[in-house]
Fold these 4 entries.
Entry 1:
Amino acid sequence: MYLARPDTVISGRSINASRLEMGRILAREFPVDADLVIATPDSGTPAAIGYAQGSGIPYGQGLVKNAYVGRTFIQPTQLARQRGIRLKLNPLPEVIKDKRLVVVDDSIVRGNTQRALVKMLRDAGAKEVHIRISSPPVKWPCFFGIDFATRSELIANQKTVDEICESIGADSLGYISIDGMVEATRQNSHELCAACFDGKYPVDIRMAARHAGSDLELN
Ligand code: SF4
């Protein structure tokens, strides 16, 4: 659900509208004193605008995407992924320098992308980097087409939120709550899949897990 295209409509409400609302709710759940809200383009943009609206902190473009660079997740090694983000995004130092930044992203899977991002922003002169994530911590694999990782690779399975914050080098870290995410979609929670966050799969995924050779622990 949370990785859908922005023009997707779920039960009459666009993903874009839900993401804006997720940003507003994130600002309510995890406020911070800061100078500028920026997004990890493009997936973090609507939630970053929502965070700016909810917090009253100005929104600006502090990162721009490089065209023609392959998507980070298809590169095989950790090192390649860390290099990948450096190639994929460029900071705008004139926007970032000496600012206390809120950076809104849509998810943390392994943490490598955000670690590289925080370092890149500090290198570009950011005074503080506060990461806000418009999905809850991803703790379970997706068996419905989003191939992100096995359980043991998901950083939220290895560490607490404070430990993840320290691991990626941010000044603070906040994830929207599951209730906040559901509120933003204005759907009934029983109509939504939130399995990668809460482990409650809407169908029997035992067969899929076995086929995928997953390290999912089935009860
Ligand atoms: S487990 Fe459900 S909510 Fe998570 S990515 Fe897959 S379909 Fe979306």
Entry 2:
Amino acid sequence: MSRLSLISLLLLLLAVALAMSLGLSCSRKRASSTLPNPTAFGAAIVESSGRKQMAQTGLLLPQPVVVQVNDAQGAAVPGALIEFSAARGVVFDPSYGLTDSSGQVTTNISLGGSAGRYRIAALTSDKTGKKIELTIEEIALGYQQTLGRQLNDQYCDRCHNPESTAERLSNSDNLEIRPHPFTEGDTLDKMSDADLTAIISHGGPALNRSALMPAWGDTLTKSDIQALIAYIRAISDPPDRNAGAVFARN
Ligand code: HEC
């Protein structure tokens, strides 16, 4: 075989290999964007669990989100298609699925890289093709807010969170004057940053409140207290005007 024909043979082999790999990657892409065909349609889509969670930006929410398709009578519908969507940067695992025998699809969600509230949409359609949508909100905490959350878990939660868990016994019920959970926007939004700084640093009496709220000025630094305030603002429900950006589907 001449050197020339050997080279052209090699080139041909290379071209075939290239074409095959291109073809493969194309068909793979097509396969993943083909949605499964629903075998049933519902009339409503509801959240079963997982809304109002928080995680640091870019990280997985602690619990999966579970949504359910129901028929007009409120009975679960297996075999319906649900698709999830949100702002860029939010990752769903999986991003769509057919409802299981209990009418549900479960997805794990990682929020985007910017701190704020993320609107997550779950979409299905009824038998006429009309879209039915459910929107839930999840919160991504920035670095400072995450620090505030850790300080809260360490110092504040036992009095300010009324729920006892296996790991943590709440002291809230034992207090004569009940502190508010920090999610309670109706109360906390009315307090300015200066008020929050005062009561956290110097205790209840700083604002003519009960001394059952201790002073933390000797325990926490100024930037710790700022982090706590950033956290309190971030988790406020309903959202505080300082609560930060809202990210919806784009
Ligand atoms: C030992 C229990 C206890 C701990 C721990 C505690 N607090 Fe409080 N806190 C209270 C009580 C009780 C009140 C309500 C005082 C009142 O209304 O007279 C209060 C009130 C507050 C308020 C005013 C809003 C509200 O709930 O009425 C803020 C803000 C606050 N605390 C922040 C904090 C922060 C931040 C921490 C952690 C660094 C913390 N607290 C730790 C008991 C506690």
Entry 3:
Amino acid sequence: MPATPGSISFQTAALPVQGLPLAPAVYLVGAGPGDPELLTVKAQRLISQADVILYANSLVPEQILAWARPDAERLGTAAMTLENLLPLMIERVRAGRSVVRLQSGDPSLYSAIHEQIQALAEAEIPFEVVPGISAYQAAAAKLNAELTIPGLVQSIILTRISGRTQVPPREDLAALAAHQTSLCLYLSARHVEAAQAQLLQHYEADTPVAICFRLGWPDEQIWLVPLNAMAAATRDHHLVRTTVYLISPALRGGAVRSRLYSPDHTHLFRPKP
Ligand SMILES: C[S@@+](CC[C@H](N)C(=O)[O-])C[C@H]1O[C@@H](n2cnc3c(N)ncnc32)[C@H](O)[C@@H]1O
């Protein structure tokens, strides 16, 4: 039945009590881009309750671990392979312990959880995925930008350029650029010349590009440049990692108004007077 104003009821689980033991399971938790205040409340709670915390040393700031129990086992995973990581998680859960695996940003993007999930399911280990704030969302917020402006751009593409991980040919950057959407480019600083050349096949040379380095970290930097200066700026600042690019006509600014809050636009919650 469609909801009508006044008839909506939210099914909220009772708030968990801090300190209650977590069920033995693996929790694949998005830790956001860096700023500890961009963790979800759920992520913070899981961190504060977990028996074991696995985290990528280079991507998760120390402050986040400050919420962990003093007796929690903390393991940096930067030097581990999946072959080390999986048996470790499985063994801890089989021993009755709860394992929080912190992933940078949101786990749905470039986080290699797919293979972890498959292996955990095969081993009959319970797991849960908890979303986080992705780098592109943190970037848009820092830029005070909406990436979907009516009449200008209504779609966002999240992608990367082919590097050591091959992107399927049908997702070539040039092919995606043809749509001239807001485009968020991950994992591409090392191949920025190729990225710029492919984007220039369809975007205007002066399309704004935000080059966002280590968002949410104390050394965060953001440069706003035209597309034809994207590669040079990346090289000038020696950026090779932890950089996300936002390429978007929406970053030009200008006065455009959405219909959502317009007085002549009625909807379920704002019917005609
Ligand atoms: C392995 S991917 C992980 C992406 C992550 N799951 C997310 O949702 O943001 C790493 C890439 O994400 C982007 N990234 C992650 N954190 C970032 C940050 N704090 N600042 C800028 N870019 C970041 C960069 O493009 C980096 O090369």
Entry 4:
Amino acid sequence: MEPNAGSDAAGIETRAEKRGNKWVLNGNKHFISNRANADVVMVMAKTDKAKGAAGVTAFIVEKGTPGFSVAQRQLTMAGPPEGQAELVFEDCEIPEENIIGGVGLGFKAAMASLDEGRVHVGAMSLGAAKRLLEMSVNYSKQRVQFGKPIAAFQAIQFMLAEMATEIYAAEQMVYNTAWRIDNGESLPTESAMVKLFASEMVGRVADKAVQIHGGMGYMAELPVERIYREVRVLRILEGTNEIQKLVISRSLLK
Ligand SMILES: Cc1cc2nc3c(=O)[nH]c(=O)nc-3n(C[C@H](O)[C@H](O)[C@H](O)COP(=O)(O)OP(=O)(O)OC[C@H]3O[C@@H](n4cnc5c(N)ncnc54)[C@H](O)[C@@H]3O)c2cc1C
């Protein structure tokens, strides 16, 4: 994404201009993940200003290409220690063969990968939630207050039951949708539902996990507080949850 184009992905300002048999990229990207390991990056740029999404083209840019640099690390609430990156393209020359798909087809290609990406976020949410539940069950059996394990208190039992129920619902959604995509279906609405439900679900589960662990849930000594911070971004990545609701409601109202 770019500083001025996040949810409005077609509003990117990075330009690619044809000069001879090369394309010249100018612009900035930010919040980019995994740049520490990347030998190549895929960059969306406007090749036709007059067109919206249809004027966006995808380019492959290799590490070390003159004009391509990493401007700064952007540290996050919980992400990897190296953080996200801001990428800068200044008169960065790219050969024609580095175009993915074709001129003007970048946005379409990016949209086509969204179904899988959103189910992937659902699966990440599910995995984190299961781990939090497992830790909460174990802790509630071990932690003794008022002469009994806290698992004996109905308040704790109910939180565990709610966590498990939401996890079960998300699991069905993730697995069913992944299976249908694997079998060739295009499922933009269902993928948005999976992303929306599962990422909200893990937020609620993480909150209950902290509560069940009491003060220990807040301490860096246990992984609960780290996971609580890590899962927050799942409501923002891969299209914010407000954008998922737009996708879902548009399909209902079209
Ligand atoms: C840790 C992390 C890693 C990331 N990795 C990458 C990456 O590798 N590559 C990449 O390209 N991007 C990456 N991103 C960017 C991510 O995709 C964007 O942050 C996300 O799409 C939201 O854009 P934004 O941050 O500009 O928020 P904005 O679009 O400015 O949104 C701000 C708020 O307004 C709401 N909003 C916006 N438009 C509407 C609307 N039409 N209706 C209702 N509400 C609306 C949003 O839901 C949100 O609540 C990453 C972000 C983070 C935090």
